Amino acid sequence: MASLTARDLRLGYGDRIVVDGLSLDLGDAGVTAIIGPNGCGKSTLLRALGRLLKPHAGRVLLDGDDIAKVPTREVAKRLAILPQAPQAPEGLTVADLVTRGRHPHQSWYRQWSSSDEGAVADALAKTGLLELADRPLDELSGGQRQRAWISMALAQDTGLLLLDEPTTFLDLAHQIEVLELIRRLHADHGRTVVMVLHDLNLAARYADRLVAMRDGRVAASGAPAEVLTVELLAEVFGLDAKIITDPVSGGPLVVPLGGARSATARPPDGS
Amino acid sequence: MTAVPLGALRRHRLLILLGLALLTMGVTVASISIGAMRIPLPGVWSALVHPTGTEQDDVVRSLRLPRTAFGLLAGTALGMAGALVQGHTRNPLADPGLLGVTQGAAFAMVLSIFTLGVTDLRVYIWFGFAGALVASVAVFTLGSVGGGGATPITLALAGAAVSTLLHGLISGLVLLDQQALNVYRFWQAGAIAGRDARLLPQVLPFVLLGLFLALANAPGLNVLSLGEDVARSLGRRVGPTRALGIASITLLTGSAVAVCGALAFVGLIVPHVARALSGPDHRWLLPYSGLLGAILLLGADIAGRIVARPGELEVGIMLALIGGPFFIALVRRRKPVRL
Fold first, then answer.
1. Closest Cα of chain B to A164: distance in Å?
2. A121 — contact with chain B (CB < 8 Å)?
3. How far apart are CA A150 and CA B248, in angstroms?
4. What is the CATH number of the domain that holds A33?
5. Residues 58-87 of A with CB under 8 A from B
6. What is the pLDDT of residues B243-283, one digit of tens each?
7. Which CATH code fits B29-333?
8. Complex prediction ipTM
């Protein structure tokens, strides 16, 4: 099982430090969702975990090796990271895109092999895209397109999958479609998934573990029911909320109080 | 069972490649045969294989053959360089001159004529080639300073800045020097006729190296076209991939423009036609673009000999006449391509 550990990370852009002194162990955690308010550094952390951002200080350990010292192509065989809302060139078909996920396994003298062929067909099957394989990406729905990108990352054949807001720009039904897929990737195929997610209730339902961040540090980490408390929501999001039991999953469900308050503040006679 | 029709797709793409190769051979033969003196195919054959020193043999061997070879060379180079530059900048309106290569070559040639009084074409093309290299290194360096490294936008901006600066300097120099003006005017239109055949073996190695680097760049460019983050995630180092592409663009464009002048439109139009045939896979797009570049350049040159018979129109003018309307049609027919 792949393990990913952050040690005393300091991250930022130029002089602006976003994350300082962060340590986190993401080993063998199934599906982890990083949550937190805008600008708390969760995407920055994910980029550093996926070696897209070089830390100012500290280390990221991939199976115990400093990720900065492992050749990037080797990292790409163990860890895949999908940025937020990636863009493909026009006319690219689903099969073409997924095929490019095999890049780290190919070299200039060995462009294509039967194991590549198998991995691509497998990735397409897992995401339910076999029938759409030769359709251009531009013609797909948002949810299908996101599944195609995840499929590319799957073809990379890595134990670890990092996803930056995989549900951005999708409507609720498509968000569920993508998150169900992510759930299956862990449950049926043993992938370890770390994703940044905005929606607390979806995070609680689909992740085994939540990491709540505020101002570049980890405010809480653990099972959804442990992390999503009234106190934490007030502290991390500055949100007054009630936690009830999700009638479907039995997990925690966050009900913000803001709107409810103004409703109860209305005169009872309704005039 | 697999629903991924990769085998069929590859066969289809190979067939197109074969078709383009045949077409290239066709225009090559036509380019040797058609002109003020029409030489039938048997005549072309005998002039090439066992010449007897007739006027016809002489026309073929000393005029048509070098001209055709320059057309093949420059067309292939500019077509491929165009596909590379559009891929690296993700800009469908980019042409090989975008990185300052063309203006760099022109400036160095004009400068060598102005300051050193160089008059021999075979000497000042080397200045042109060196100018192309220097300009492209300058653009790449300028585009890389600052945090993010060389991105499509910084490269395009640096290229535009350097090109504009060089163009201003050229305008100043050619006002001061009649000889430089004459060379520059001719160079600016672009031509493959009347070039010294001895230049051919001199630039050929650079073009071949450029073509090799371009093809080696194709897999990297494929993943780069998914965005730099995705490319890095797939284990591709972005800096070296860009550098390889820019080296190839410089070699190809530098050799072509130094010898044949600023042949407009080839590098701009050809990749669009090639992309319509290949889709966005650079492993196919690049060879298609090379062959289509040769076909377009030779085709335009042949057309220039036919329309103004018994005289002829320079290929640069023909390219503008063909390329302008074609490009407008291309832009109007389809919505702007996103790369």
1. 11
2. yes
3. 33
4. 3.40.50.300
5. 71-77, 80-83, 86-87
6. 899 899 999 999 998 888 888 789 999 999 999 898 889 99
7. 1.10.3470.10
8. 0.88
